[in-house]
């Protein structure tokens, strides 16, 4: 597997972003609370399953589905993003202060600047090309696959949530 963004640029992003004065993900108010959650990605079944989200108090939207949910009157609790490409800003045009943004340190610095007045928490991805030598000793790193969905499942488990795969795509 090769990332779409060169590893050198990802490491540069991490080094620039890790100095930001932002709370860490394991300090979230809901960490280990065991509450139900819907994980919502931007897949093709989202429009037909949108109505199911009204049954959830807690919703985590993933990257590109952010603005779609807002446009459809749904304000998620969290928005998780890990794409290192600045294009991510295009998915967050309708950002607001009601949402807790969970932004990976490998995201482009422009994403952090775009969300500078919002409620942002930073997290680190565990990966084979970078680890504590890049992040610093004692930093929590989130494992998972190569997409925000697979990382979001790990984040949701860290928050202690009961995942429902029928809520959305």
Give me some keywords for this one.
7 strands, 6 helices, globular, disordered C terminus, 169 residues, alpha/beta, seven-stranded parallel β-sheet
Overview of this protein structure:
Helices cover 25% and strands 17% of the residues. With 169 residues, the chain is α/β, with parallel strands linked by helices. The protein has a 7-stranded parallel sheet with strand order 6-5-4-3-2-1-7. It starts with 6 loop residues before the first helix and ends in a 6-residue tail after the last strand. Mean pLDDT is 85; it is low at 162-169.
Topology (elements, then pairings):
Elements: H1 7-17, E1 36-40, H2 46-49, E2 59-62, H3 66-71, E3 78-81, E4 100-104, H4 109-114, E5 119-125, H5 132-135, E6 141-142, H6 148-159, E7 162-163
Parallel strand pairs: 1-2, 1-7, 2-3, 3-4, 4-5, 5-6
List SSEs in N-to-C order.
Answer: HEHEHEEHEHEHE
Q: What is the average per-residue confidence, as pLDDT, rounded to a whole number?
A: 85
Strand content: 15-25%
Helix content: 25-40%
What is the approximate shape?
Answer: globular
- What does the main sheet amount to? 7 strands, parallel
Number of strands: 7
- Which radius of gyration do the C-alpha atoms yield? 15 Å
The helix/strand class is alpha/beta
Number of helices: 6
Low-confidence stretches: 162-169
Strand arrangement, largest sheet?
A: 6-5-4-3-2-1-7
Task: State the end-to-end CA separation.
Answer: 24 Å
């Amino acid at each position: 597997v090769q990332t779409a963004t060169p590893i050198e640029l990802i490491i540069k992003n991490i080094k620039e972003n890790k100095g930001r004065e932002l709370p860490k993900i394991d300090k979230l108010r809901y960490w280990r609370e065991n509450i139900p959650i819907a994980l919502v990605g931007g897949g093709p079944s989202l429009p037909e399953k949108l109505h199911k989200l009204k049954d959830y108090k807690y919703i985590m939207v993933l990257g590109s589905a952010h603005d779609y949910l807002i446009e459809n009157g749904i304000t998620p609790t969290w928005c998780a993003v890990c794409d290192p490409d600045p294009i991510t800003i295009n998915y967050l045009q309708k950002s607001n202060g009601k949402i807790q943004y969970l932004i990976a340190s490998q995201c482009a610095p422009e994403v952090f600047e775009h969300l500078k007045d919002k409620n942002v928490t930073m997290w680190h991805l565990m990966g084979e090309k970078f680890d504590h030598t890049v992040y610093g000793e004692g930093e929590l790193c989130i494992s998972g696959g190569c997409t925000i969905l697979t990382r979001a499942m790990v984040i949701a488990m860290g928050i202690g949530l009961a995942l429902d795969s029928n809520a959305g795509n």
